User: Fold Metal-dependent hydrolase from Streptomyces roseiscleroticus.
Amino acid sequence: MMGPAHSLSGAAAWLGVGAAAAAADRPMPWPVLLVGALICAGAALAPDLDHKAATISRSFGPVSRWLCEIVDKLSYAVYKATKGPGDPRRSGGHRTLTHTWLWAVLIGAICSVTAITVERWGVLAILFVHMVLAIEGLLWRAARGSSSDVLVWLLAATSAWILADILDQPGNGADWLFTAPGQEYLWLGLPVVLGALVHDLGDALTVSGCPVLWPIPVGRKRWYPVGPPKGMRFRAGSWVELKVLMPVFMVLGGVGAAAALNVI
Ligand SMILES: [Zn+2]
Assistant:
């Protein structure tokens, strides 16, 4: 899928988690629902850091271009080192290492540990990065074009600052789910993991599938491209994605948000 569909599916997924949390008697305060949905929308773009044309690789100027090159080389090296007898030859790292459940969990864990150890500036950094991505993903058409990079960064920095202040107020959810002292913002890693997994699922629906199970082997393949039967797959950016999936994500997100806030 392309950026906007990935972001929307990420936001909808977190709103669904909000509904589930409300049903399980751990309701999210509205700031957790909102911030989580935005982080998840941003995190749902992150696995494509292995592709230089992807939104994330163009969102942070030279920093992300440089990171993208490193991630692509690292992914390719890991692919070559671990490929099974049934895995095809490849020429680059796109849709390999960063498109696995292990990567999702790793990035989420790094965010959670950063949030509880670096505290304020750690939380702000996580919020800033994901706000930039969420703005690029959800407002894709408006934010398109490199001239608006600085504006997007300013908007993301301001909203990160405001959202962190709101979350810090008592009762607003800094300690949602993890309530022991010192565990504030431990939950920030959850929308990060979820966003990456939702991205992988979205890619699995497309023609080439997604090796989300790595390093668990399937038959002779260690990078088995998970996906539905061939006839049910679509091309990234096709009408199915724009005219069917995106409206469905919006409706599901709306229903999830209403259930999470106990409106329905
Ligand atoms: Zn992808």
User: Anything to note?
Assistant: The pocket of zinc ion is lined by residues 47-48, 95, 99, 199, 203 (CB under 6 Å). The mean pLDDT is 93.
